[in-house]
Write a structure and sequence with these properties.
- By secondary structure, the chain is an alpha/beta fold.
- The protein has a single domain, classed as Rossmann fold.
- 33% of the residues lie in helices and 21% in strands.
- A hairpin with a 2-residue loop joins strand 1 and strand 2.
- Helix 1 packs across helix 7 and helix 3 packs across helix 4.
- It is globular and about 55 Å long.
- The C terminus is likely disordered.
Length: 252
């Protein structure tokens, strides 16, 4: 349901280039969605029409799609961006040797810098709209989902009201296991494909189990598909947005 008019624009927010989908009236919620490793910075912008159409509310929302700070042109991906560097060869070797357990404690170089840059985008976006974290949906796909989790646990002053984690997995377990308790009041949607060849289902299940251990309200969508975002996750994200935009606590 889309009765409010929206326009797309490109802008620099803090350290990151972003595409924003803005309503013509003041938004009542903000969603920040982060792309995965190797994708163009605008990779998830195509979700915007579906997210807006899947909503049952006409309350205005703003959608922000930041681009990762790292270019992968030197690695053969001219349009590719990343939040931090990855070794594809190392991941493939881990897959072949069945050593995915090692990912759980992985604390990649550059994740803190990416986290701080994304937190700056979020804080700026909320401040300019007069909103707080109780009207923030933060999410991402694959590496972007990991970054969203990192920001929610270890970056933002207050956790987001909602998280959308598409095909993410558990990393930095020593940090997240301590910090995830702060997400007990955050509504969380998580999706993962049974046929994911990049991050097998069990890696997403590790994250799910960690969240459940902290009594976080997680809506887990396991689907018969690969490393992608299923329609039911888009619908679920739209419902989360409706809940934030129609929240009776809204006083702005």
């Amino acid at each position: 349901m889309t009765q409010v008019s929206y326009r797309a624009s490109q802008e620099r927010i803090g350290q990151l280039d972003c595409i924003t989908i803005q309503p013509q009236v003041a938004p009542r919620a903000v969603a920040v969605l982060c792309h995965g490793f190797g994708a163009p910075g605008d990779d998830l912008v195509g979700l915007a029409p579906d997210l807006l159409e899947a909503r049952s509310s006409t309350a205005p929302v703003e959608l922000i799609f930041p681009a990762g700070p790292l270019s992968l042109a030197a690695e053969g991906f001219p349009e590719g961006r990343a939040w931090w560097a990855l070794s594809i060869q190392r991941l493939l070797a881990m897959m072949e040797q069945g050593q995915y357990e090692l990912i759980r404690e992985e604390s990649p170089d550059g994740i803190e810098a990416a986290r701080d840059a994304l937190c700056e985008v979020i804080e700026t976006a909320l401040a300019r709209r007069g909103l707080t974290s109780q009207h923030l949906l933060l999410g991402g796909f694959s590496q972007g989902a990991m970054l969203a989790m990192e920001c929610a646990c270890c970056g933002l002053a207050q956790p987001p009201a909602a998280l959308a984690l598409y095909s993410g997995c558990l990393i930095r377990e020593p940090h997240w296991r301590v910090a995830a308790a702060r997400l007990a009041g955050t509504r969380i949607l998580q999706s993962h494909g049974e046929l994911d060849p990049i991050l097998p289902l069990r890696t997403g299940r590790w994250l799910y189990d960690l969240l459940l251990a902290h009594h976080c309200p997680v809506d887990f969508h396991q689907f018969a598909g690969p490393h992608t975002i299923p329609w039911e996750a888009i619908e679920g994200t739209a419902q989360l947005l409706d809940g934030l935009a129609d929240d009776s606590r809204f006083t702005a």
